[in-house]
Amino acid sequence: MLKGIDPIVHAELLHVLMLMGHGDDLVVCDINHPAATIAAKTTYGSLINLSGCGLAEATRAILTLFPLDTFVEKPVCRMQVVGEPERQMPIFAQIQDVIDAAEGRAVPMQPLERFAFYEAASRSFAIVRTSDPGPYGCFILKKGVI
């Protein structure tokens, strides 16, 4: 057991966060995302499961250790609603609140079309799948520096 680390961040996730460098991307997603398939294409190569954990909880815990990139305009991406790119889902605002609180500032979020999101996710360092039922709970966090 370690002090100061949220218990949501288990050993494998902590290891992955430590392996990542500045500019690497981490996907945090709901149970609907084709996470296992896409995770095989990532740098890490396998899926990280946070079973029993929702997206907001997982993102909040990750961001206690993980700085967002300040060298890019939009260090967080999210999936757009298919056929309704301007539609806002409740999870978008929830995650926006989590990232803004973690960074102490308003953090711009970039919407991506579904297949563009999948392509970006496949180029990420790793994918963390939560038990959140979604839908559209798919986010990419770009790691910054301390």
Protein model, in words:
- This protein is α/β, with parallel strands linked by helices.
- The protein has one domain: RbsD-like domain (RbsD-like fold).
- 31% of the residues lie in helices and 18% in strands.
- It contains five helices and six strands, in the order H-E-H-E-H-E-H-E-H-E-E.
- Helix 3 (55-62) runs parallel beside helix 4 (90-103).
- The chain is globular and about 45 Å long.
- The model has no long low-confidence stretch (mean pLDDT 97).
Short structural description:
The protein is α/β, with parallel strands linked by helices and 146 residues long.
Task: Give the SSE map.
Layout lengths: L10 H9 L5 E5 L5 H5 L8 E3 L4 H8 L13 E4 L10 H14 L5 E4 L1 H9 L3 E5 L7 E5 L4
Parallel strand pairs: 1-5, 2-5, 3-4
Antiparallel strand pairs: 1-6, 3-6
How would you describe this structure in keywords?
globular, alpha/beta, 6-stranded mixed beta sheet, 146 residues, 5 helices, single chain, 6 strands
Strand arrangement, major sheet: 2-5-1-6-3-4
Kindly report how far apart the N and C termini lie: 24 Å
Helix segment count?
Answer: 5
Architecture (CATH level 2) name: 3-Layer(aba) Sandwich
Biggest sheet details: 6 strands, mixed
State the shape. globular
Strand and helix order: HEHEHEHEHEE
Count of the separate structural domains: 1
The count of strands amounts to: 6
Q: Which CATH top level class fits?
A: Alpha Beta
Structural class by sheet pairing and helices:
alpha/beta
Average pLDDT confidence is 97
Q: Rg to the nearest angstrom?
A: 14 Å
Low-confidence sequence ranges: none
CATH fold annotation: RbsD-like fold
Estimate the strand proportion. Answer: 15-25%
Residue share in helix: 25-40%
CATH superfamily: RbsD-like domain
